[in-house]
Amino acid sequence: MELISMAQEAAAHGAAVASSGIVGNITQAVGGAGAAIGVGLIGSKAVEAVGRNPGAFGNILTLGIIAMALAEGLGILAFFVAR
Question: What subcellular compartments does it reside in (predicted)?
Fold first, then answer.
C-alpha cells in the first residue's frame, strides 16, 4: 500500500516539474523575442536618425550601442530568471 502511495506522489511531482519546465520555456521565448524586437527597433531608429542628421552619427552610434546592450541584458536576465 505504501509503495502505491509513493508512486502516486512521484507521478504528481513529475507532472508539476513538467509544467514548470513548459512555463520556463515560454518565459525564455518571450524574453528572447522581446530582446530581439528591442534591438531591431533601436537599430531601425538609429539608422533613421543618422539619415536625418548625418553629423550626429557618433552620438547616435554610442547611444544605440548602449541601448542595444541594455535590451540584450534584459533578454539574458529573462533566460536566467526563467530557470
Answer: Membrane
